[in-house]
C-alpha cells in the first residue's frame, strides 16, 4: 500500500495503451492477454508471476468463462489450494465475488455442497478422491476447468495441517494425470518454469495417447 501510494513515480512500468474488450477495469499486459486467449481456447497454462501481478484476475476470468456460459449451464470449475487455511480464504472470496453462483467446499473435515456447486474449492487429496470415486464420475464429467493454486507445492513432502497429507506432492501429480479437462497452474516461486512446463506438456500428451 505504501509503494502504491507514495512510490509510483519510482516504479516505472509501460502500461499497454490499447484496451482489451474482455477487461473493463484496466489494460492487461501482453502475458495476461496470452493467458486469456488460452482460456478462451480451452487450453492449459502455467502462470509464473510475482505476487500481486494479476494471477487472481486470471483465475476470476477462468471461473467466469465457465459459470457464466449460457450454453453450458452444468459446467463446473474447481479451485485447488494446497491447505485448508487457503481453502477457507479462497472460499470466502468466491462467496463474495460470485454470490449468485453456488460455491462448495471440500476438505478432510468439512463438506458443503460438493457435487451441487458450480465452483468447488478444495485441497489436492480431496479432489483426488472425487476424480477416482466411481459414484462421482458424473460430476467429474461436468468439470470444465481446474485452477491449481500454489502449484510449486508439488515438490513439498507434507503441507497439510495436523499431520495430514493434503499437500503431498505426489497427490498433485496424480491430479494432473487424472484430469480430463484443461487446467491453470499458478505459482510465484517456480525457479525452473521451462522444465516444469515441459513436464506438464508431457503429462497432457500422455493423457491424449491414453484417450
From TrEMBL:
Highest rank taxon of the organism: Eukaryota
Record-linked InterPro entries: DEAD/DEAH_box_helicase_dom, Helicase_ATP-bd, P-loop_NTPase, SKI2_subfamily_helicases
Pfam families xrefs: DEAD
Keywords from the UniProt entry: ATP-binding, Helicase, Hydrolase, Nucleotide-binding
GO cellular component: cytoplasm
A GO molecular function held by the record: helicase activity
PROSITE patterns, alphabetized: HELICASE_ATP_BIND_1 (PS51192)
The keyword Mitochondrion belongs to this UniProt entry's keyword annotation: no
Domain Helicase ATP-binding: 36-208
Entries under PANTHER family matching the protein: DEAD/H RNA HELICASE, PUTATIVE-RELATED, DEAD_H RNA HELICASE, PUTATIVE-RELATED
Name of the protein: Helicase ATP-binding domain-containing protein
Amino acid at each position: 500500500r505504501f509503494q502504491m501510494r507514495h512510490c509510483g513515480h519510482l516504479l516505472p512500468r509501460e502500461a499497454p495503451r490499447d484496451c482489451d474488450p474482455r477487461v473493463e477495469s484496466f489494460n492487461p499486459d501482453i502475458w495476461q492477454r496470452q493467458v486469456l486467449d488460452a482460456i478462451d481456447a480451452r487450453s492449459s497454462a502455467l502462470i509464473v508471476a510475482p505476487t500481486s501481478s494479476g494471477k487472481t484476475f486470471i483465475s476470476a476470468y477462468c471461473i467466469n468463462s465457465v459459470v457464466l456460459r449460457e450454453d453450458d449451464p452444468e459446467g463446473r470449475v474447481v479451485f485447488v489450494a494446497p491447505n485448508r487455511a487457503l481453502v477457507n480464504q479462497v472460499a470466502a472470496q468466491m462467496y463474495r465475488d460470485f454470490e449468485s453462483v453456488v460455491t462448495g467446499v471440500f476438505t478432510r473435515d468439512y463438506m458443503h455442497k460438493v457435487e451441487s456447486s458450480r465452483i468447488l474449492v478444495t485441497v489436492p487429496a480431496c479432489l483426488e478422491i472425487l476424480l477416482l470415486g466411481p459414484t462421482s464420475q458424473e460430476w467429474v464429467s461436468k468439470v470444465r476447468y481446474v485452477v491449481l493454486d500454489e502449484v510449486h507445492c508439488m515438490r513439498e513432502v507434507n503441507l497439510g495441517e495436523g499431520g495430514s497429507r493434503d499437500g503431498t506432492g505426489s497427490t498433485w501429480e496424480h491430479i494432473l494425470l487424472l484430469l480430463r479437462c484443461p487446467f491453470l497452474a499458478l505459482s510465484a516461486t517456480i525457479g525452473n518454469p521451462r522444465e516444469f512446463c515441459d513436464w506438464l506438456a508431457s503429462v497432457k500428451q500422455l493423457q491424449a495417447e491414453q484417450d
